[in-house]
Amino acid sequence: MTRLKVGVLGASGYGGAELLRRLVTHPFVTVSGLASRQFAGQAVAACWPQLAGAALPAFEDAEAVIAGCDVLFCATPHGETAPFVQRALAAGKRVVDLSADFRLAPKDYAAWYGPHPYPEGCARAVYGLTELHREELRGAELVAVPGCNCTAGNLALAPLALHGLLGEHVTVNVLTGVSGAGRSAALGFHFPELNENARPYKAGGTHRHTAELEDTLGRVAAFGRQVKTRGDFARPTVSFTPHLVPMTRGILATCTVRPDPEHPEAAGLSTAALLERYEDFYRGEPLVTVQEDLPQTKAVSGSDRTLVSVRYDKRSGTVTAFAALDNLGKGAAGGAVQAFNAAHGFGETLGLFTQGVWP
Ligand SMILES: NC(=O)C1=CN([C@@H]2O[C@H](COP(=O)(O)OP(=O)(O)OC[C@H]3O[C@@H](n4cnc5c(N)ncnc54)[C@H](OP(=O)(O)O)[C@@H]3O)[C@@H](O)[C@H]2O)C=CC1
Ligand SMILES: CC(=O)N[C@@H](CCC(=O)OP(=O)(O)O)C(=O)O
To answer: Semialdehyde dehydrogenase NAD-binding domain: which residues (predicted)?
Structure first.
């Protein structure tokens, strides 16, 4: 099979670096270009010591990267990315976008981000959570890779959504590593401010990932296991609170719901019964492991796996679902390469890391 020429925008950022670490090992990919404004003209090692010696071209400007590729990965900030995507699609390229620019319908994007820079593009995008959109991803010209917090929360809760067990209100709390804020994060992300510290942020229903959580859970409740990106469906209300904790990588999502006591399955709920439903839901998934042990972030660090578990609290009638993933792995670059593989009919784990590193 001929190799696809793949270009990466935002290659000097954390998401970009993790894309390169995966794409250099992919048997059906040649990395044809890397873009950075800060490092244009320099070798990759000038920016990334961990990639010194890898078979990668020097950084150049974004337009040259777009012109030279078959498939473009965008690891650039939301709002800045849509114009690149528009130009790449117009030039007949396929796009895998790690930013938030094509995840939501234009009216929802406007509510959380402001006016959409290229609203027509949204209709061409497939949401890149492969476990739920695998069929729809095949042949997709534009993949909108989910956010890291949403990947964790939605993988934790999707089996409950399928069974109608979300109840009236969904609470999603995440602990997130600092690399989630990107390499260019500002004051407040420096070591002295983070070390020995844990702090919530964007609380009170203000985090832009709330819309993505509600979208995905609504889709699963409405359409079942293989869902469509667009369409009419009711959304649950999600209360989402992220917490920044002093670790480099990782997301741990802890999600609590109270199923309707009148629901036909409510009387038979137990942890064992829930784990069985989760195992059914994720059976055969190469990158999601359902386990009885409670997930922890170190077990997925450096990998593209997600660990999921669930508990029933009989006393309060609540279900708590957990997911752990690496925000730069399954939560960004790993999820992106998995969706790229699904879109192109490649083996889904090509280029990916199915095991983590420990310690
Ligand atoms: N970090 C994470 O855990 C996750 C990140 N994402 C998303 O992935 C994308 C990248 O995030 P991350 O790698 O963390 O961010 P970083 O801040 O680490 O990197 C951002 C990259 O974008 C480039 N860039 C910034 N502004 C522009 C611009 N106007 N035009 C062209 N290039 C630009 C920068 O390169 P230079 O300045 O050299 O040009 C840099 O390479 C974002 O959309 C983010 O939301 C998604 C899931 C998880
Ligand atoms: C620690 C931290 O700040 N995390 C970021 C993660 C954002 C992210 O990467 O998600 P997108 O792809 O949607 O931008 C946040 O919570 O906003």
So the answer is: 5-140
